Amino acid sequence: MTIAVLNWIGWKFEIYQLKSVVKNLSSMKANTALCFFACGLWMLIKLRDKAMILGRILAMVPLLVGGLTLVQYALGISLGIDEFFFTDSTTQFPRSPGRMGTNTATNFLLIGLALLFLSGSSKRSIIVGQLLLSPVFLIGFIALLGYAYSLEKTHGLVSFTSMAIHTTACFLVLVPSICLLTPRRGLVRLLGRTAQSRLLSRLFLPPLLVAPLLLSYVRSRAERAEMFAPEIGIALMMAISTAISFVVALIAIRLMNQHLQLTRQTYWANRKRDAIRLERENADIEEKARAEFLAMVSHDIRTPLNGILGLADLLQDTRLDEKQRDWIRSLRGSGQILMTLVNDFLDFSKMEAGRFTLTIEPFELESTIADLASLYYGMAEPKKIALTVPQTGQAKWLMGDAVRIRQIVGNLLSNAIKFTDKGSVTLRYELRSQKENPLLVIAVIDSGSGISDEARSTLFQAYAPTNAGRSGGSGLGLAISRSLARAMGGEVELVRSDKNGTEFRFSANLPFADPPKPADLPREDGTTKNVRVLVAEDNEVNQTVIQGYLKKLGISPVFANDGQQALQMMEATQYDLIFMDVHMPVLGGIETTKLLRTKPFGQKAVIIALTANAFSEDIRKCKEAGMNDFLTKPVRLTELETMLKKWT
After folding, report:
1. Going by C-beta distance under 8 Å and a sequence separation of 6 or more, which residues neighbour residue 226?
2. Which residues 6+ apart lie within 8 Å of 613 measured at CB?
3. Which of 465, 486, 542, 579 is buried most, with the most CB atoms less than 10 Å from its CB?
4. CA dihedral 405, 409, 412, 415 (to 10 degrees)
């Protein structure tokens, strides 16, 4: 469109550079400029997806101009269309002033037909339109070569007006521009179907089209300056064109090789990345399935264990004869062993999956050791074994995972009592440094028969018994204890083992901690008797256990069988504390807590999770839902009492 406007200006003011580019060469006729202008408008309409009715009207301009011009040539008449804009005073044909060349008219006739077909949307019409443009490009390219190599018969027919040099250039630009308006339709999509075809199109077409035009201009200027004869100019043009084609071919081959290599590398990189992604997704699915399985196993085993151990505790406080007390002791011991096995398997599975985490909180060392030892006096008493725990008399607060420390030391104590038939078991502890990170050392010493050489070689391996033929456990206790200790930056090691006994030592660097404020500590004033407690629990056995424990503490709880019932009871009565089971029918504990926190009567309520779920993920979900604390089944009376004193 710009070239058309400039051409009209050249005709108006007789500026030969705008009409013919080079003086004494054929000029672009005004009708030619009109046709190019109409083609440009058609492309704008097509590009913006406007109504193609106007596009079809514009397509008629080059069609009619080209067709009527050919009719004039064929019949030797003038229809007046050549003088529509201007009269070409330099024309060689007085009867047809300003008439476009026959090859130009033929091109516009084909372009007009092509634009009519391309104005449609069917695949067939687009293919026909692109086919009609092919000879237009060929005629223009031949004419350009004629100018480049001084072959006049290629840009004009016999004695008729020849095609102007900038007209040929416009045809060579116009045809691919029209085709590229539908790059994914028809025949043109073959050029861009693959990356290789797109690369070849970009490499070959521009230099092969532009080079002859530039070389012809340079040659014509050089001949006018009489630098060399026309024959030499043509020879130079052919040599340079051949050289350009050769260089372009070499560059294309090299780039194609690089492209193919890059494509191959990208393909294998994508294959590898997809394989890694698929492997990671499968691992995530497997890990999720394992986590769900472990959570289900934990819940389904801990729930009945809570009933077994809880009812055994309650039965122990009833009137029993000596034989019945022995049975209850055996029942509690068996339940505790089963609980230890469950914990060992779950902990080991979490460690293998990389999901194990420590809960770092301040704890008081001496009371923690004393509470732990009290759990094992009953285990040592039937065997007539003296369990001694010397106290230091110094209340030192440390920062660490007290639960896991108790698990490690408890495992060492359990093994020591189990493999000692007579004598004593001693638990000693000390802080060997008074710096910011003191070294906590806890030793468990027994007077048993020692560990055999065979068992000692596999002592800390998973599923290896502590003493051949006598373990009766999972074989995971020491393996888990060492992993826990190393997670704390410490170690569990066998110091000595002989006929005089065995000594295990646990060590870890734990920083000192500030004692909690009095408000954060459980109260010891026994003011829990008037506390109103709601227990949301659907299991009848667990209801019996919790009710028995709370009655021992002087509390008469109220029970809700599901979360929906708990919401209704909370709306009717304000309770001081709510024990919330997580898995319940109708409405679970997580959902119930979230709803409670949105109600005015539930925003300040103290809610404690009471669940058989024992994973850190479960604790996180409970706290995110709005629960204040967390108790894991099986629940002990001392844990329940501590929780009540803490929150009431």
Report:
1. none
2. 295, 298, 299, 582, 583, 632
3. 579
4. -110
Give the distance from CA 74 to its chain's centroid: 71
245 burial (CB, 10 Å; 0-12 / 13-18 / 19+) is: middle
- Count of other CB atoms within 10 angstroms of residue 264: 10
- Residue that has been written with the tokens 């500030």 in this structure: 514
The rounded distance, in Å, linking the Cα atoms of 551 and 543 is: 12
Q: What DSSP state is assigned to residue 428? A: E
| Angle, CA of 531, 536 and 541, to the nearest 5° | 105
Q: Average pLDDT in the 27-49 region?
A: 84
Q: Under a CB-based contact definition with an 8 Å cutoff, are residues 144 and 179 in contact?
A: no
Q: Which two tokens stand for residue 130?
A: 């692109």
Q: What is the pLDDT of residue 189?
A: 61
pLDDT score at 443: 94
Reading the block at residue 622, the tokens are 């409970």
Q: Which residues fall within 8 angstroms of residue 104, CB to CB, at 6 or more apart?
A: 29, 32, 66, 163, 167
CB 213 within 8 A of CB 150: no
Strands 386-388, 424-431: pairing kind: parallel
| pLDDT for the residue numbered 557 | 92
Query: Is pLDDT at 335 greater than 80 in this prediction?
Result: no
Question: pLDDT by residue (tens digit) across 604-647?
Answer: 889 999 887 767 777 888 889 999 998 888 888 888 888 888 88
Q: Please, which residues bridge with residue 364 across strands? A: 397
